[in-house]
Design a protein that fits this description.
About 45% of the residues lie in helices and about 10% in strands. The chain has about 350 residues and is of the alpha/beta class. The chain has two domains: about 20-310, Thiamin diphosphate (ThDP)-binding fold, Pyr/PP domains (Rossmann fold, 3-Layer(aba) Sandwich); about 315-345, no CATH class. The longest helix has 26 residues, at about 20-45. The chain is globular. The termini are far apart. Bound molecules: thiamine diphosphate (TPP) and magnesium ion. Magnesium ion binds near residues 150, 151, 152 and 183.
Length: about 350
């Protein structure tokens, strides 16, 4: 499904009824915010002021379109790249930067965000997401779980197990495949000979759709429809997007992919088409752009300042794992405290 093409033209038949120009401006603002946050995170890491970072640039439409389709009751289960979704869900910006400094306190997600922290072991979030969805159904919360997996993650056993479980339990879950073309240095074509990743859902009896993941309106509509249908069961949405940057700051993509490939995706930039559309309608101009960028940068800089002044408590690595601390962990913590384990670590 594509609703707005690269030139900013719209398919009127598919255009969602609840999207007007104000909402498109909101989408553009969030996508720009996510890109600005991403640039800051990368720059901090390069200055040695933050730990490893997984950039999202190029994938803003997939993240913002789906995040804006979620409601407050819905629950978000990420992998490690959906910083844009966290932004829309209301994760405080300083928590994002505290996490980036490697501190556990950045992973204490507020209850209003309705999410779990970043999950790095590929695809392990999926059975958990389905379990959380089954719990929502059992407790009749009316909430839907929206979870994300990369193209590489769809080769993991956890992906198939989660889908089968979701199907048989008719779990209210939306599995978004953020297909950015690469799993570190492994290209999509070396993951599977299946023509699409979406079709993997068919064997589990789950409805699926492939969407232009750089078209924020199409991603919004696909996610909104899937959430609306989630009382009947799960949906799998494959978003076709592209990882414009490195896998993480520990990676150098020039070793395994051509500049020509990256360049071929530049005209498909998810922000560009929305900006063209808004400019053509007289709804956007350079002064609005720079005012927006200034405001967002001020918010980001204030959050960085707060995060850099933050004094982490090493005990937090024990405290945030369970809602109550099991005895075995308590003993470990007591031992560490009595041995003055963190002396001199600042
Ligand atoms: C189980 C497991 N295996 C390997 C890794 C190392 N690893 C981290 S991300 C990644 C590739 C993931 O690719 P994809 O699912 O396409 O997501 P993307 O990074 O492109 O967003 C790998 C192999 C890991 N974190 N967990
Ligand atoms: Mg990938």
């Amino acid at each position: 499904m594509q609703i707005m093409d690269e030139k900013g033209s719209i398919d009127q038949q598919l255009f969602p009824k609840d999207v007007d120009d104000n909402k498109i401006i909101e989408m553009y603002r969030w996508m720009s915010f996510a890109r600005a946050l991403d640039a800051k995170a990368l720059s901090l890491q390069r200055q040695g002021r933050a730990v490893t970072y997984a950039p999202l640039v190029g994938e803003e439409a997939t993240q913002i379109g789906s995040a804006m389709a979620m409601g407050p009751k819905d629950f978000f289960v990420p992998n490690f790249r959906q910083h844009g979704v966290f932004l829309v869900r209301g994760l405080p910006l300083d928590a994002f930067f505290i996490y980036m400094k490697g501190y556990e306190e950045g992973s204490t997600i507020g209850k209003n965000v309705n999410a779990v922290p970043d999950i790095v072991p590929v695809a392990t979030q999926l059975p958990h997401a389905v379990g959380i969805a089954v719990a929502q159904k059992y407790k009749k919360t009316g909430g839907t779980v929206v979870t994300y997996v990369g193209d590489g993650g769809t080769s993991e056993g956890n992906f198939y197990e989660a889908m089968n479980f979701a199907g048989i339990m008719k779990a209210p879950v939306v599995i978004i495949i953020e297909n950015n073309g690469w799993a570190i240095s492994e290209p999509r074509k070396e993951q599977t000979i299946a023509p699409t990743l979406a079709q993997k859902a068919i064997a589990a009896g789950i409805p699926c759709i492939q969407v232009d993941g750089n078209d924020v309106i199409a991603v919004y509509k696909a996610t909104k429809d899937a959430i609306a249908n989630s009382s009947k069961g799960p949906t799998v949405i494959e978003c076709l997007t592209y990882r414009m940057s490195m896998h993480t700051t520990a990676d150098d993509p020039s070793k395994y992919r051509s500049d020509a490939e990256v360049d071929s995706w530049k005209p498909k930039d998810p922000l560009l088409r929305i900006r063209n559309y808004l400019t053509n309608k007289g709804l956007w101009n350079d002064s609005k752009e720079s005012a927006m960028a200034d405001t967002q940068l001020k918010q980001i800089d204030a959050a960085v300042e707060k995060a850099e002044a933050f004094k982490a408590d090493p005990k937090s690595m024990y405290q945030n794992l369970y809602s109550y601390m099991p005895d075995v962990l308590k003993e470990e913590l007591d031992d560490a405290v009595s041995a003055n384990f963190w002396q001199g670590t600042g």
